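Thread: quick sanity check before group meeting

JM: Hey all, I'm pulling together slides for Thursday and realized we never actually wrote out the predicted structure for the chain we discussed last week. Dropping the sequence here so it's in one place. If anyone has concerns about the input, flag it before I start.
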Amino acid sequence: MKITTGIFLLLFVVAGAMAQELPSFSLQVKAGMQLPRIYGADKDSIAGYGKAGWMAGLSALSPLGKWVALKHDAFLVVQKNESRLDLFPVSIAYRKYNLEVFGGPYMGILLRSDNYGNGSMDKGYATKNDWGFTIGAGYTFRKRLSAEVRYVQGFAPLVENAGTKDPLKAHRRYVAFTLGYTLF
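JM (edit): ok, ran it. Output follows.
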């Protein structure tokens, strides 16, 4: 009798869990503004990296449950002296009541820079890749429009020095504000 009751109870719980409707995969188009800052011991030796820039990209959301999802973002960032591809490959997002809080790894790939360099220059040149972490929060309005704020902390030095010099201790840090529209 206990086994039969246990089986029916288990089937009842599984049926209730399956009846819950999970959110589906969604894709958003986003655009916004980036407000960069430089930190580190040699931050005063770097010029031109602290200028605001524009960003545009895509954001995908892969739900794992009712409130937890994986968030994937890719942004093209354009500033006066450089362009980058900022990737956020997989962030864990907690979503409830149209509010979202997320965090995960960050990777930046330099596409264009005023001091791109080829490694044989005597002076410093821009680092090609950056890595770090991101945290942020967002809010969805009427199931289609969203606003998001994101903090990004980079760990790779912004400028490498060719030859025997050590890289400058100056790293990327920024806050970004984006608006998004959900396609599906």
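AS: nice. Residues 13-17 have pLDDT under 50 and may be disordered. The first helix runs from residue 2 to 19.
JM: adding both to the slides.
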